Fold this protein.
Amino acid sequence: MVFVGRARELDELRAAYDRRPGTVLIVGDAGMGKSRLVGEFGAGLAGARVLTGGCLDLGENRLAFAPFTAVLRELVGNLGADGVCALLPGGVPGELGRLLPTLGPPAAGDASLARARLFEQVLTVLGALGPVVLVVEDLQWADRSTRDLLTFLVGNQRALPEVLVVLTCRTDLDQGHPGRRLTADLARVEWVRVLDLGPLSRREVAAQVRGHLGHEPDGGLVDRVYSRGEGNPLFVEALLTCLGAPGPAVPQSVRDLLLEPMASLPAVSQEVVRAASASGALVGHELLAAVTGLGDVELSAALRLAVAANLLVVVGHGYQFRHALIREMVHEGLLPGERAALHVRYAEALEQDPSLAGPDEPLPSSPVTGPRWRSGIPHAPWPVRGGLPARPVTPWPTPSNWTSSTRCCGCGTACPARRGRSA
């Protein structure tokens, strides 16, 4: 992936290293380039040892102290088991042997104090290595033991004058996720600096496209990639990789990443998310209620779960998808009949109550000039004004002008939900 647009953050990491000890917490949505930023920072350091460990996504059965076991394994590879043990008092592995048996059996002692001894021995090893950057990635997958050890290390950084701790964590997490609590707790520590990676600007995306293609890109291509990827470096790279290639327009790995929160939602919330995907960029609460047929209590409960899962975000009195590609992937997952039926329900809801479209604005009386849904992906059927969608620019098809040649969506045939109905 081409590295662009993170010069300020890279400078802040270098400054944090120069004034160590300290901790830098790098946060951002999946794909924003947290790991790439850390890699660029580490590659430019001279005279420092960079130790990296990552937390593993193993569901409920997460490995205790996984990133620290990886760090110890790296140290053993560089210094040998005897070299690592020599950093500890008496030259014995102590409790570190529980994390990496290669170091030898743990020393006998009061089992109730084993956790405290382990924490102190990790602190001792890090403090004996000289200039060190300790990188722990993907805190959102950290087990309880890892979270506790990290909190201990950060809280005792004055005992580590040569150590900079660099942590990465995703922000697109459920509201009750333990990763949110951990990052909030760490951010309150005086010597923790938080770097929040936002999306790239259009100019930065253009530079990424230029680096990927190896030549100056067409302005239209940059606009399309920027619009669909919304400045997320991973998504931009994925869209460029699939450019002109057979198969899906978005790699399966990115699809899985985008739709991962969907699987944990109850069925009614999933149906509401699917219904929202057939709207434009933003859908009002009342319009979504009319389309889904759910009561206010049931709809609000379903939407609250979708918002908590970071699939939807609240905008004014309505909702929009957290990322345009999420909406695109959800909508593509609809069966043709589902897609057509949803589009019809939106049209009927607006026909029956035009005020659901948004702020007061007279509907034009001209005949339908063409379909509002094309290519299987809904383009915003109305402009967004004041945080809510305005009325459609042209009226939606009605039973009197909906003919067999009228397409309500990109399903390729006349809408099956309208087929056979008389005017």
Remarks:
- The first strand starts at residue 22 and ends at 28.
- The longest helix spans residues 66-85.
- The domain at 7-107+119-196 is CATH 3.40.50.300 (Rossmann fold).
